[in-house]
Amino acid sequence: MAGESGGVEETATLETTPTWAVATVFFILITVSIFIEQGLHLLAKYLGRKRRKSLLQALNKIKSDLMLLGFISLFLTVFEKRIATICIPKGIGESFLPCQNPSTDEEEEPKCQENGKMSLMSRAGVQELQVLIFFLAFFHVLSSFLTFSLGAAKMKRWEHWEAETRTLEYQFSNDPRRFQFIHQTSFGKRHLRYWSDLRLLRLPVSFLRQLFGSVYRVDYFTLRHGFITAHFAEGNNFDFQKYLKRALEKDFEVVVGMRLWIWVFSVLFIFFHAYVFHNYAWLPFIPLVMLLVAGTKLQGIITKMCLDTNDKSHVIRGTLVVRPSDHFFWFDRPNFLLHLMHLILFQNSFQLAFFSWSWYKFGLRSCFHRKTEDIVIRIAMGLLIPILCGYVTLPLYALVTQMGTSMGNSVFPEQVVAGLKRWRAKARRNLAARRRGFAPRSLDASLESSPSFATLDTSLSLDLDYTTDDGITSDTEEISVAQTQQKLGSIHGFEFARV
């Protein structure tokens, strides 16, 4: 920066810095880095002992993202001078500014100043961009972790509902020998109303329902029964709540990642922070609107499933059965909602990151936040959206998105899925050996050697003994192979929709 005498103040380099100061800073940086690395290593070992494979993969994605950010920071540091020497006309350089009246006390590159131009980005701007990228990555991981933790805590309350399905009272109330009208069931009374067939009335009701209760007990029981009936033998003692927990962890592995399209959106968000767009009036509300639209859609899907069942028959025997199908979802893709949740969480994270970065670099009252209402809106939206998403939309999403045509491999614990894959690979090798004319190994021997299968009796039922997420061996779940072959074709042709 230019001094009062018109000269240029020289900054101290390593040539004029005491070696003890350099060594001290270097030692502190190494110590902090080692603590972070060891902390991540211990967390990975803990997740491995608990057999939380999805969370372990999410942690590996976070490490990959940190490494990518490290490369970006390194490139910005190396090419800082070259970026600053890229000259552009002043008319272009003064367009789409983030502030209406920016300060012009920064030193300009002599090369550009001599030609009557200005730098594409000053050296100070490159350094500030590095800090912004760090804030963005930090808040994205923090927001995703906080949201999914709140959702998991809310879903833990469903354990009482799952335990209730094993009581005599529940079995008596769902006696398969009893006939009743659909509109007389608890699920029918909730969803078969005068507004159900009218889209203009169903949408506002679905919008309000997501804000009051989100997931109701009768909805959980009905969707659970429909899922088990569609994919297993009716009356199977399947732990649906643990399955939702595993599915949510697998979704977290997707959401926490920083994909290419996420980086593209980050570029667009930075661009729309120009003063001419007046982004403070609309940009912070986009994640909230998208979140409410997603919740309205999920509530509407539950009502549509009830209407679909009622259109086929007005009388049921036993428990009302809803039919899972992809056509209830946008574009016939249940996973589209997962990418929408990803975008919502990222955009909210960007708002928090940009606000925190501008506060850190320029103070709370800067050209980025001149008005008090702007500060209040950004803080309120940044806190409201993770809470609303975690406690309201995310549990609803975890339940409803399982009602697609296919089920994910989270239906089995990780070790059982690994056993199924090994068994399938051995069966393929045996078939290949048979075609070549060699004597294949016995399939029974392959099954007996698989740790995921305890017994294979003459009734073709597989007893899957596995260890729960808490490390405690659970009771044996019996899944009928004949029923599975009827629903999915065959064990050999078993395909997972969301691997």
TrEMBL record:
Residues passing through the membrane, by range: 20-44, 129-150, 252-274, 280-298, 336-355, 375-400
GO biological process, one term: defense response
Top-rank lineage group of the source organism: Eukaryota
Cell inner membrane keyword on record: no
Coiled-coil ranges from the UniProt annotation: none
GO cellular-component term (any): membrane
Keywords tagged on the record: Calmodulin-binding, Membrane, Pathogenesis-related protein, Plant defense, Transmembrane, Transmembrane helix
Topology of the protein relative to the lipid bilayer: Multi-pass membrane protein
Main location: membrane
Presence of the UniProt keyword Transmembrane in the record: yes
Gene Ontology molecular function: any one: calmodulin binding
Localization (cell): Membrane
Free-text comment on this protein's domains from its UniProt entry: The C-terminus contains a calmodulin-binding domain, which binds calmodulin in a calcium-dependent fashion.
Sequence similarity: Belongs to the MLO family.
PANTHER family xrefs: MLO-LIKE PROTEIN (PTHR31942:SF72), MLO-LIKE PROTEIN 1 (PTHR31942)
Function: May be involved in modulation of pathogen defense and leaf cell death.
Name the UniProt record assigns to this protein: MLO-like protein
Species the sequence originates in: Perilla frutescens var. hirtella (Perilla citriodora)
Lineage: Eukaryota, Viridiplantae, Streptophyta, Embryophyta, Tracheophyta
